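$ ./design --mode recover --in tokens.txt
reading tokens...
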């Protein structure tokens, strides 16, 4: 399980990803708030992170990094609008997390074939499993 510092870092990273043109859309805010609740982060702490991002902490667990990448994929898809800039940003976030370049590209490619461009968790996990075989 990840610690509090890692949880706040994950949320801060997602908030930064969602801040397109300096604002977070309502649907993105609700999604992020749901992630905060899932991570047992209070609403007060979450709201504080929106204006006061914390330093990025690299997750040690590869599986946690994959889960975070999936959260970012969901966040990007939640409003139904995916721009080239967001795809580029997501790709770079994945690389910064230490995820495999080919796996990231495969996930981004597969997004096009799913309704609402949301890649199911089992498909995403299978993509990253290939790297280990």
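writing sequence...
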């Amino acid at each position: 399980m990840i610690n509090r510092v890692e949880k706040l870092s994950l949320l801060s990273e997602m908030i930064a990803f969602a801040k397109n043109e300096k604002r977070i859309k309502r649907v993105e805010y609700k999604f992020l708030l749901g992630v905060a609740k899932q991570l047992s982060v209070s609403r007060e702490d979450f709201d504080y992170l929106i204006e006061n991002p914390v330093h990025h902490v690299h997750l040690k667990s590869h599986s946690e990094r994959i889960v975070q990448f999936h959260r970012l994929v969901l966040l990007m898809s939640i409003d139904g609008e995916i721009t080239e800039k967001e795809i580029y940003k997501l790709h770079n976030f994945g690389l910064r997390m230490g995820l495999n370049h080919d796996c990231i590209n495969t996930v981004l490619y597969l997004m096009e074939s799913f309704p609402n461009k949301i890649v199911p968790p089992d498909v995403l996990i299978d993509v990253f499993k290939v790297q280990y075989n």
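exit 0
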